[in-house]
Design brief:
About 50% of the residues lie in helices and about 15% in strands. The protein has helices spanning about 1-10, 10-15, 20-30, 35-50, 65-85, 110-125, 140-150, 165-175, 200-220, 230-245, 260-270, 285-295, 295-305, and strands at about 55-60, 95, 130, 155-160, 180-185, 225, 250-255, 275-280. Strands 1-2-3-4-5-6-7-8 form an eight-stranded parallel barrel, surrounded by six helices. Helix 1 packs antiparallel against helix 12 and helix 12 (about 285-295) crosses helix 13. The longest helix has 20 residues, at about 200-220. The radius of gyration is 18 Å and the shape is globular. The relative contact order is 0.15. The model has no long low-confidence stretch (mean pLDDT about 90).
Length: about 300
Amino acid sequence: MRSVLLWMARNERLAESIPRMRFAQRAVRRFMPGERVEDAFSAAERLRDERVRVLFTRLGENITSLDEARAVADHYRAVLARDAERKHVAGPVEISIKPTQLGLEQDPAECLRICHELAQAAAEADTWFWIDMEGSEYTDPTLDLAEAVMAEHANVGIAIQSYLRRSAADVARLLPLKPAIRLVKGAYDEPAAIAYRDAGEVDASFLGLALMVAEAAAEGNARLALGTHDVELIDQIATITEALGIPREVLEVHMLYGIRERELRRLRDAGHPAYSLVAYGDAWYRWYMRRLAERPANVIFALRQLLP
């Protein structure tokens, strides 16, 4: 089923037709409050009232021109400016962006310049700029990009995918930069030669990577975010790090808006900084299909939207 859903995510014809279907529009509301940035801000208000911190990501990938990339950057600068107008107990909005939204394919040098500008804008708003990870064909250029931006800005993070066999080496490469790392399992269809295909192996890799970063984070030399809805794995990591004398506030938990919110509040109350990733925008199809592929329960929910 996972392979089928990931194939659907890549299919251009389905990407054109499915977003027009009402059941799909209803189902995607589980994972995003709406397509407009105003919807995202409304969700952020509720979440921060509950002491849940917020990241914003406007959906979209693989833009086709640098003009589009500059428009994306302008959008996020406006988001940061708007959020800075009000103060929140749970802190400012952080932003999370795919490099292919910022011109990585068209001009890596211009993409780097845009990233420096966004990191500076985020720093002026006293917040963070996260660089998302995409399919494996972008792993090397994304790491090069993040490394260059982190070298000049202390408020930059990157997503690392635990299903890639190379990720331990990538984390070791980044640790001298005192990085912020958001660990995720991975949501693309990668071959066994470069990725773990067994769920148990992916989880074991996630745990090992978490311990690598947690030790640095406990010494103030990294920031660690556990980007997963697998609460059993989070609890396992928390138990091990507690035995090592690492406090729970070192282990941030990042979950998608609308998923396992009760568990996110439980983890918040247990001492973990809790974050909700609020997605919005009209380019949601591919992102949504990858979310369905992550957990069978998501598919069941989507099928229910076929009912009146």
